[in-house]
Amino acid sequence: MKTTLLTALGAVTLCGAAFAQGSDACGAAQAINGAGTFNYDNSAASTDGAPNPLCYKFGTSQIDNDVWFVWTAATTGTATVSMCGGAGNDTKIAIYSGPGCASAMVDCNDDTCGLQSEVTNGSVVAGNSYLIRIGSFPGGTTGSGTFDITNSGGGCVGGGNDCCSNAQVIAGCGSFPFDNTAAGQDGLGDPMCYKFGTDQIDADVWFSWVAPNTGAFTATMCGGAGNDTKMAVYADTGICPPSPALDCNDDTCGFQSEITWDGTAGASYLIRIGSFPGGSTGAGTFDITGCSA
Q1: Would you call the peptide bond into 244 cis, given omega within 30 degrees of 0 as the criterion?
Q2: pTM, whole model, 2 decimals?
Q3: Could you tell me the pLDDT band of residue 158, with boundaries at 50, 70 and 90?
Q4: Structural domains in the chain plus CATH codes
């Protein structure tokens, strides 16, 4: 009886976060939940995930030797999965929009901190589940270690146009004010946004703009912002958050950003203004040019 009880207790313990290792098959992804530190081991893993443009880096869109977790959010907002400080091998990871193997990829990252990776989903919902794929850069080392998941009430926390779905309507060309001081982050990472180890824009606010004519347009923070900006523009398809970006930029003039895109008269575009991850937020103005006289 004592032996049976100890065995049962051991089995329960092994199901906890500290003993999570990941499944080699997406269809049998290991269940984990909430914030915390979780173990992984892809030393003997095969590759069953598909390549994805969001993962493109150094000539490849694939993640090799992948192991899978299906993670359930405890809080509505933002989830970040980080290998920084917990992994010694050459990692590459991704997070998806849902629990199924056909779910859309939301973010993918190779190197955020040395050879280790970090991804974010800015629109998780408490009680919903999301696939996490942990592997290695193709041809890189495999291994075992830990990853951290943080789950905060981020997303749309600042009110107003902090939410993509509540983008502020602006019109024409000229100078427009922005303020991302209290903003959360609900936009997706994008390969076009990749700079200094991250494809994400933090503390984002949104603007909806209709092209008054067909032509090339520019939105610039140069001369109007003092914080460390990062910005992108998307075709407005009615889906939030949008993807892919038409253009994305981090530093054009110092720490300020500038984007350009070809617009079609009457077409709607979403302009996303935020900060480089970990950089400063603030208030200022941005200018749009390209309107016909």
Answers
A1: yes
A2: 0.57
A3: low
A4: 14-152 (2.60.120), 160-289 (2.60.120.380)
Chain segment 264-293, per-residue pLDDT in tens: 999 999 999 999 988 889 999 999 999 996
Residue 179's contacts (CB-CB under 8 Å, 6 or more residues apart) are 205, 282, 283
State the SS3 of 155-206.
Answer: CCCCCHHHCHHHCEEEECCEEEEEECCCCCCCCCCCHHHCECCECCCEEEEE
User: Strand, helix or coil at 146?
Assistant: strand
Q: Which residues contact 239 (CB under 8 A, 6 or more apart)?
A: none
Q: How confident is the model at residue 155 (pLDDT cuts 50, 70, 90)?
A: low
Pair of tokens at residue 54: 């969001």
Average pLDDT over residues 69-86: 89
